[in-house]
Amino acid sequence: MPRAGLRRITVTPATGAGLLLGRNQQQIPVPLKLFSPRPERVALVGGAWAAQLLIFRAFAVGARAIVVTTEQRAWSGFGERATGQYNRLTVLGGEPSSLPPGTAQTPSLIVYDLGVTGPAAAPPLGPWSTQLTVLRQLDRPGVAALQEAGLTLLQRLGGDEATLAAASLRLDQQNGQLLQFMTDDMIAVTGNGPDRFVFLNQTPLEQQYVGMPRR
């Protein structure tokens, strides 16, 4: 490259390491630290679409996933379609007694999609392993999962859900109200810093394999 071209190059500030979740209202990338050398716990209040989008992006960083669910039909064939492989995602109808270890190159994502509550007795997590608890609706039985999580992701909530989330996560009044008015392609992030409202910026490939935004 000629020197004149080099002088025109600008470097944007680093946004931090992690899986790219989307962009904020200022169009600044928002990374999500989903995996680390220590076990991580994340709660998601939302539907299977948001969970599958997050897993699809985790596949891109080498993750393998186990999904424990009461709705196996919603997950049937997803791993094969998304990766072209049969060993990247395992779907279970009951809670496992042990979990596969994760590594920095192949982190482990354990997803509990059990409706309105987390697992009854989840096995302990090891390094480079993350537990993602999906709450299809937020009600009293799911509050413990929110409080145990280091990070919480929320799709648009109904009025009662938003009130319960705001109280459980100690959100200010404005952010508690905003939870009810997000669009389908947005998600709120609480924990590990200030509360953020993120546009997920789904790609055409993600739309192909995960579908259009929905709760």
Describe the structure.
With 215 residues, this protein is an alpha/beta fold. The protein is 27% helix and 24% strand. It contains eight helices and ten strands. It has helices spanning 3-7, 48-59, 72-75, 78-83, 143-148, 159-169, 173-178, 204-210; strands at 19-23, 29-32, 40-45, 64-69, 89-92, 108-113, 129-135, 151-154, 186-190, 196-199. It has an eight-stranded mixed beta sheet. A two-stranded antiparallel sheet has the order 1-2. Strand 1 (19-23) and strand 2 form a beta hairpin. The chain is globular. Mean pLDDT is 91; it is low at 11-16.
Descriptive key words:
215 residues; alpha/beta; 8-stranded mixed β-sheet; two-stranded antiparallel ribbon; 10 strands
Task: Give the secondary structure arrangement, pairings included.
Layout: H1 3-7, E1 19-23, E2 29-32, E3 40-45, H2 48-59, E4 64-69, H3 72-75, H4 78-83, E5 89-92, E6 108-113, E7 129-135, H5 143-148, E8 151-154, H6 159-169, H7 173-178, E9 186-190, E10 196-199, H8 204-210
Parallel strand pairs: 3-7, 3-8, 4-5, 4-6, 6-7
Antiparallel strand pairs: 1-2, 8-9, 9-10
CA-to-CA gap between the ends? 47 Å
Return Rg in Å.
18 Å
Percent of residues in helices comes to 25-40%
Order of helices and strands: HEEEHEHHEEEHEHHEEH
Number of helices: 8
* Strand order across the largest sheet: 5-4-6-7-3-8-9-10
Shape: globular
Short recap of the structure:
This protein has helices at residues 3-7, 48-59, 72-75, 78-83, 143-148, 159-169, 173-178, 204-210; strands spanning 19-23, 29-32, 40-45, 64-69, 89-92, 108-113, 129-135, 151-154, 186-190, 196-199. With 215 residues, it is α/β, with parallel strands linked by helices.
